[in-house]
Amino acid sequence: MGNQLVIDVDRCTGCRSCETACSFAHYEEFNPRKSAVRVSIFTEDAFFLPQVCLQCAEPACAAVCPSGAMHASEIEGSYVVALNRDRCVGCHMCTLACPFGAVEDDGGGSVRKCDLCGGRPACVEACATKALSFAAVDSSPRAKRKAMADKMRLDGRD
Questions:
Q1: What range defines the domain where residue 98 resides?
Q2: Three-class SS state of 103
Q3: Cα(66)–Cα(85) distance, rounded to whole angstroms?
Q4: Which of these, 18, 114, 133, 155, could form a disulfide with 53 (CB 3.0-4.6 Å)?
Q5: What is the number of structural domains in the chain?
Q6: CA distance 44 to 46
C-alpha cells in the first residue's frame, strides 16, 4: 500500500504555508493562487480546512477527460490521479466533474491539481503543525469507522 496525503484538521492553524510551498514547488513563486492546496478559513468558527485532491479510486475527472490527459498512475509506490499537460486540450471538463473542486484552471490553458510532488509533497514538508502528513493509511471501511468512533469519543470529553 502506498502513501496518501492525510489531513488532521484539528492541527491546522490556517497559516497557509502549504499553499505557498505548493506554488513554489511547481511555479517557483510564492503565490497561493497557483497552489493545488486550498485552505478554507471559517473565521466565525475558528476552523481551517486544507483541501487537496483526494486521488479518487474512480476519478470523475479522468472519466470525462476526452484526451486521456487525466489518468491514474503510480508515483513512488503511491496511487495518484496524474495530469499529462502535453495531452491536455484545455476543455476543463475535469474541473466540472471533480465533486471536491480539487481541479482548477491554471490560467494558462490547462488545469492544476495535486500530483503529490513526485512522492515528496512540498505542502507536508512546509506544515509546521503537522496537520498534513504523507503516510500509509488503512483505508478499509472498518478502519475508517474505528477512526471516526475514536475521534467522536475524544471530542465528547471536555
A1: 3-155
A2: coil
A3: 13
A4: 114
A5: 1
A6: 6
